[in-house]
Specification:
With 395 residues, this protein is α/β, with parallel strands linked by helices. It folds into two domains: 196 residues, Rossmann fold (3-Layer(aba) Sandwich), CATH 3.40.50.2000; 184 residues, 3-Layer(aba) Sandwich (Rossmann fold), CATH 3.40.50.2000. The chain has 16 helices and 13 strands. The strands form two sheets. Strands 3-2-1-4-5-6-7 form a seven-stranded parallel sheet, sandwiched between helices. The protein has a six-stranded parallel sheet with strand order 10-9-8-11-12-13, with helices on both faces. Helix 1 packs across helix 15 and helix 11 crosses helix 14. The longest helix is centred in the first third of the chain and has 18 residues.
């Protein structure tokens, strides 16, 4: 190209979650390459972080599913493409993707999509709505599990179309994770005091927003089967307006006489310190995780991980070596795995920590994810080395 490329990512908001984290990670990679990184969304708490790594945020009501607003957004994105000379659009969610698709086609520029989730298929309209994520010039799946679902559900990535679907596993930050020794004692103590943790009691932690499919009810039931109150369970995550579900969880804790065990601590901005406080990290999701960032971050910080036996966890956890997999929704099996994890002896814990960090370092560093995605951008934008490498791979 005759100029440094300008890449626009579109997503609903910049609150918290895997979509937002990946958008920020890619923004940093784009800026580090000397390109210009734009992100359009309705904004949120991660906007400052995006701008801190060099990205420019453009406020737009892209979370709306209203067809009229989607068309207004398409017009605004089209104007942005021409005004700013945008070279490529990357859509990370369905409603913004419809607007972005129209803008990319009008501007005759490459369009990339990423499947960050499985997406429901209830009825033909839902499948049609989801299908925008299959219309990219390249369709990225954030795990092999999601790539298989895209092939099965949408027929994308088969036969002559195989090269359009690419699995690019999520990556986690090496600067924030991978190095437990870099987390200061002050940070750990501050968080322990905030969460009212009791010295000497093992900590079981489930990070994840308070929504039913994340499996908080399964973990609470498992704690009752665990049969002892000599542990602390920390549920990390906001209810994000789901007050009835939070109230249901609180009532469940009271009914099972676990008020001395379970803590609801809300959102946490220092997850590295949080993992350092945990003796075991749990991902109890009842629906398959597309990737499962919690399981990977926990391993990177040397913590044993228990996750449900479906979705991305089957790729990211090595059973018996870096953690355990249990059947979805099975509180008894989860309780059994908790006993094993809590009662690991120091040598077993150290061996599992070493294996977990090595596994994540080899497969799930953020640098691997961003490098693979940047290669896709370069190929679509006609960079000679990327085009030649892609053609060589096909042959």
């Amino acid at each position: 190209m005759s100029k440094k490329p300008i890449v626009l990512q579109v997503l609903p908001a910049l609150e918290t979650g895997g979509v937002e984290r990946t958008a920020v990670d890619m923004t940093k990679a784009i800026v580090d390459a000397g390109w210009t990184a734009l992100v359009a969304s309705q904004g949120g708490r991660m906007q400052y972080e995006l701008e801190r790594v060099g990205g420019e945020h453009i406020v737009m009501p892209l979370a709306s599913k209203n067809p009229l607003q989607i068309h207004r957004n398409a017009a605004n994105l089209t104007a942005l493409v021409y005004d700013r000379g945008i070279d490529l659009i990357h859509a990370r969610s369905r409603a913004p993707a419809w607007s972005a698709l129209m803008a990319a086609r009008r501007g005759k520029i490459p369009f990339v999509t990423t499947f960050h989730g499985t997406y429901g298929l209830k009825g033909p309209f839902k499948k049609l709505y989801n299908s925008v994520m299959t219309r990219g010039d390249r369709v990225i799946a954030n795990s092999n599990f999601i790539a298989d679902r895209v092939r099965t559900d949408y027929g994308v990535g088969l036969g002559d179309d195989a090269g359009r679907l690419i699995a690019v596993p999520r990556g986690i930050e090496t600067t924030r994770f991978f190095n437990p020794a870099a987390v200061s004692a002050e940070r750990i103590i501050q968080l322990a005091e905030k969460w009212r943790l009791t010295d000497g009691l093992p900590v079981i932690m489930l990070p994840g927003r308070l929504t039913r499919w994340k499996g908080q009810t399964v973990l609470i039931e498992a704690l009752k089967h665990y049969g002892q109150n000599d542990v602390i369970c920390v549920l990390v995550g906001d209810d994000q307006g789901r007050t009835k579900y939070r109230e249901e969880l609180e009532a469940m804790v009271r009914d099972l006489d676990l008020e001395s065990v379970v803590r609801f601590v809300g959102n946490c901005t220092d997850m590295a310190a949080a993992y350092m406080l945990a003796d075991v990290v749990v991902s109890a999701s009842t629906d398959p995780e597309a990737f499962g960032r919690v399981a990977v971050e926990g391993q990177a910080m040397g913590r044993p991980v228990i996750a449900t036996d479906h979705g991305g966890a089957r790729e990211t956890i090595l059973p018996g070596k870096t953690g355990w997999l249990v059947p979805p929704g099975d509180a008894l099996e989860l309780a059994s795995a908790l006993r094993k994890a809590v009662h690991l002896d120091p040598d077993e814990r150290a061996e599992m920590a070493s294996a977990g960090r090595a596994h994540v370092m080899d497969e799930y560093k953020v640098e691997l994810m961003t490098a693979r995605t940047m290669f896709i951008y370069r190929e679509l934008l006609g960079f000679p080395e990327a085009r030649l490498a892609a053609e060589a791979e096909k042959t």
